[in-house]
DNA sequence: TAGACTAGAGAACGCGCATTCTCCACGCCA
DNA sequence: TGGCGTGGAGAATGCGCGTTCTCTAGTCTA
């Protein structure tokens, strides 16, 4: 098995397990079992669990934003499409809220790399929304709606939080946008 | 030491430690040390850590909502006062986001009592907002803003998320309320 | 005062898990 | 063919922590 293939398998397994069960609840041995990569190789690739966690978050950030970006692009950059995308996400089986918010909750004092990955993710999402909505304030308001809808959908299990937020966004965009 | 005094001290210590550092990061021995209640008494009062966690959450729910309710009451029930209250909260030293959202993130599969405490807290906050804002949809939109502002203030450390959300709420209330 | 009960301090137990170590099988080169 | 290095499987280590156990000092009662 080539090093890059091992890395891929590890990150794939890490994402599935960490997102579904939480980082702390998943042992390195579970990652080994789920990835099929030996423990030795695992530690050669990621010297400590924190390194794997940080890599998991950074990869998830890239993929999550790419998915959102591409979806919104097919809608001609309509900011409301963001909320349609959220609705789809909330409805996926296994949806458990924002991985970054969950990780923030899990680690009282996160390792610096992990804290940075979380903050940078939110910064990038904010930047994306600002690119979609010229007015900074309005963009930030939509961001708040996005985060709120995600948290509530996770806790209540109701994907309709997305349309509630969508209606609010529509009003905000019409008033200020 | 009377049993109720022991319970009070334990819950006080639990809240300070669990909220500040996260539940998993705080051992029962730290609760003992911080409360001054012996381990034996601790386990007589709360047979397992989960019971203490659930009691901590339920007590925090009561106090948090009472504080919000009383503040909004002094403002004549103005829904926008909610966001002023949030701004104060976000500015408090030691603010670390919503205890319930953090706990949700901490426990992949929470014990039933803990999951219920989290859900019930959100249900009650939603009910409070609906009492303030007759229109259900608008109330739910404000709820989304509240949750989003809280998450973002926690992660970015910027209390100004409260005023961003407040402006959005103002627009939503003017349009629909 | 002697006996019995209480509560606290802290040791002990058991387990889970991050990390490291040991041993073995397999492929490569002279 | 015979050493030799590479990689995997999985045991061993060390530690943190939830929970329980032990021992002891103090207090109340007859």
Describe the structure.
2 copies of one chain form a homodimer. With 177 residues, chain A is mainly alpha-helical. Chain A has 9 helices and no strands. Chain A has helices at 3-21, 28-35, 39-45, 49-74, 81-91, 99-106, 112-132, 136-156, 161-176. In chain A, helix 5 runs parallel beside helix 8 (136-156) and helix 6 (99-106) runs antiparallel to helix 7. Chain A is elongated, with a radius of gyration of 18 Å. The model of chain A has no long low-confidence stretch (mean pLDDT 97). Chain A binds chain B through residues 20-22, 24-25, 96-97, 100-109, 118-119, 122, 137, 140-141, 143-149, 151-152, 154-156, 161, 164-165, 167-168, 171-172, 175-176, and chain B through 20-22, 24-25, 96-97, 100-109, 118-119, 122, 137, 140-141, 143-149, 151-152, 154-156, 161, 164-165, 167-168, 171-172, 175-176. Chain A binds a DNA duplex (30 and 30 nucleotides) through helix 3.
Question: What distinguishing features does this structure have?
Answer:
177 residues, homodimer, mainly alpha, DNA-binding, 9 helices, elongated
> What is the distance, rounded to the nearest whole angstrom, between the alpha carbons of the first and last residues of chain A?
52 Å
Principal-axes geometry of chain A comes out as elongated
- Which stretches of chain A of 5+ consecutive residues score pLDDT under 50? none
The greatest inter-chain interface is formed by: A-B, 44 and 44 residues
Number of DSSP strand runs of chain A:
0
Assembly context of the chains: homodimer
- Give the helix tally of chain A: 9
The class by helix and strand makeup of chain A works out as: mainly alpha
Question: What helical percentage do the residues of chain A reach?
Answer: over 70%
The sequence of SSEs of chain A as H and E is: HHHHHHHHH
Strand content of chain A: under 5%
> What would the average pLDDT of chain A be, to the nearest integer?
97
The description of the largest β-sheet of chain A is:
none
Cα Rg of chain A: 18 Å
